[in-house]
Amino acid sequence: MLFVRFWGVRGSIPCPGPETVIFGGNTACLEIRADNRLIILDLGTGAKPLADYIIANDIKKGPLDIDIFISHTHWDHIMGFPMFAPVFISGTKLRIRGPVSYNDETLASIIGDQLSYRYWPVRQSELSAKIEYEELKETTVDLGDGLKVKTKYLNHPILCLGYRFEYQGKSIVTVFDHEPYRNLGLPF
User: Fold this and answer.
1) What mean pLDDT comes out for the span 146-175?
2) Is residue 32 classed as helix, strand or coil in its secondary structure?
């Protein structure tokens, strides 16, 4: 079974409140379940309520083992990381994958730099979870058990990936922050 739940759908800035109850006010965060596998796409502010759900429902089943895919490293897609409670739980394994636009940066530094005293009261070295980072380009990632993820470059000011998750003949495709190309010869 392939299942998706949206925990955040906003771009740029979170705006939770009564006006956004139907479509949500948190920034990008999706939960994907492929039977017992948990995959998260983007760690916007929706990562906080997702983490609350995971703690209430999944932690009792044993140590957490989570694959996280980041579409790109703009703030609204990663700002929920410091509030993602599983990073503080010993025995948790997180594999964070995503693109990096600049040669002098790594995915680990971009995500982890949020955890410095300048921005947050907890440092990355204080996290209990085992976190692995993998930088992606256009590729296919085999997660095992018949679960595959295909990536595709999107048009955005920084390197951005769309994802296609395939499992048991079903697929889910995500395309966030993709702008039209200029100079298409169109009259507008």
Assistant:
1) 95
2) strand
